[in-house]
Write a structure and sequence with these properties.
Elements: H1 17-28, H2 34-39, E1 50-53, H3 61-64, E2 69-70, E3 74-78, E4 83-88, E5 91-92, E6 101-103, E7 106-110, E8 125-127, E9 143-144, E10 149-150, E11 152-161, E12 164-172, E13 184-192, E14 200-201, E15 206-207, E16 220-226, E17 232-237, E18 252-257, H4 259-263, E19 271-276, E20 279-283, E21 297-305, E22 308-315, E23 320-326, E24 337-341, E25 359-364, E26 374-381, E27 390-398
Antiparallel strand pairs: 1-27, 2-5, 3-4, 4-7, 5-6, 7-8, 9-10, 11-12, 12-13, 13-14, 13-15, 16-17, 17-18, 18-19, 19-20, 21-22, 22-23, 23-24, 25-26, 26-27
């Protein structure tokens, strides 16, 4: 379906202007001393790709597939043929959200990925096949599609196994919700049995804010992958795609499910990682307990790289992309580590880090070289519709 309308997104509500203004102001107050102090510290080792834009540049591989600008570009492995898919959110044909609005989600693919970072990601074709990039799901924007009014459906993660591709998404009702509300309509899982050409929705949806369940912990998911123990591990949290959900609290929960049960849409078969009667345990008799809490968290990503579980997320409070690791999904996670900052002059934990103003996202590439050399896909939006940048960038060599 082709959409020519654009989502109603106030210029200061969708992305990280929330913290950008505060971060820049605070950084400006120490500009006289911070750069010199930062220079005295050890420099960060150069990255193979240290912020290479993958779209929003005329003549790049994305524009060659009909996508001028877009965000997220969530990477996943297309196991049926060994290629790679990248799922974008709201996308346009022109630079800086100009030209025709393509919709959300949109997918570009790559035949080979260079995990060393020697060559940047280059897109080889668009989905659905047979033409340029266009919206994957069949629904109308700024309309009621049978569930209530929705502006757009934003992908949170994608995975392929057993011949079926899955995208977990959030249907957004309000991009700039009042304080304490998440602005979502619902969350769902769509699947494709032809590797991304056509899509169907599972009939079960997780109710969101405007359906009466504000702050649902099933708003945003990340598929950590199928572990050698045979379980599919899934992390989830409250929807905070606008980065304005003041009740977010940074809480993340964990559940697991057998892949066949997931394929059948039997989501009630999940086991929950919960703190019950004084101990952590897998159970079906209690809801998942938050495994992490703290700062407000936007987009997040968890992937098993080698034998290590790696987590990346946009810390809205800290205005940075941070990472953690754990030997198992249900083990204790390391303390957060700052990787990429919106402002590297303040605070001191940001000094010397790669800087990307107006950043968000931070998705782990499942084809990363190792658990100590991750590839992250980070988004950037300057808050002004029709102006650059509105894009994703590649960072390699990230040691979480």
């Amino acid at each position: 379906m082709t959409n020519t309308s654009r989502p109603d997104r106030p210029s200061a509500s969708r992305r990280s202007l929330l913290k950008a203004g505060a971060g820049v102001a605070l950084g400006a107050s120490v500009l006289g001393t911070a750069p010199a102090a930062a220079a005295s510290r050890a420099r960060v080792a150069p990255l193979a790709q240290g912020g290479t834009p993958l779209c929003d540049r005329p003549g790049d591989s994305a524009s060659g597939q009909g996508l001028g600008s877009g965000d997220l570009a969530i990477p996943y492995y297309r196991e049926h043929d060994g290629s790679w898919g990248y799922v974008f959110g709201d996308s346009w044909t022109g630079s800086g959200q100009s030209g025709e609005y393509l919709g959300s989600p949109v997918m570009l693919c790559q035949d080979r990925f260079d995990s060393s970072g020697g060559a940047p990601i280059s897109f080889t074709w668009a989905m659905p096949t047979g033409g340029g990039a266009r919206q994957l799901f069949d629904y109308r924007h700024n309309a009621d599609n049978g569930y209530g009014f929705e502006v757009s459906r934003i992908p949170n993660d994608c995975i392929e196994f057993g011949g079926r591709t899955y995208i977990q998404y959030t249907s957004v009702a309000v991009w700039g919700p009042p304080a304490g509300y998440d602005g979502s309509l619902m969350s769902g899982v769509a699947y494709s049995d032809d590797y991304g050409v056509t899509w169907n929705d599972y009939p079960y949806h997780w109710a969101g804010d405007t359906q009466g369940v504000n702050q649902s912990m099933y708003g945003m998911w990340s598929f950590a992958g199928i572990d050698p123990d045979g379980w599919l591990y899934v992390f989830s949290k409250r929807w905070n795609g606008s980065h304005r959900n003041t009740a977010d609290g940074g809480a993340i929960q964990l559940f697991r499910i057998q892949p066949d049960e997931f394929r059948d849409g039997n989501f009630g078969a999940q086991q929950n990682w919960a703190y019950v009667n004084g101990s952590w345990q897998w159970t079906t008799s209690a809801a998942p307990s938050p495994i992490l809490t703290g700062n407000t968290i936007g987009e997040f990503s968890v992937k098993r790289i080698g034998d290590t579980y790696c987590m990346s997320y946009f810390d809205v409070t800290d205005y940075s992309i941070r990472t953690r690791t754990a030997p198992r999904p249900d083990a204790v996670w390391t303390a957060p580590k700052v990787q990429i900052t919106g402002n590297n002059t303040w605070p001191a934990t940001h000094w010397g880090k790669p800087q990307l103003p107006y950043l968000y996202g931070g998705y782990i590439h499942p084809g990363s070289a190792s658990a100590t050399s991750l590839t992250l896909i980070v988004s950037q939006w300057n808050g002004q519709q029709g102006q650059s940048p509105y894009r994703v960038l590649q960072y390699d060599g990230i040691n979480p």
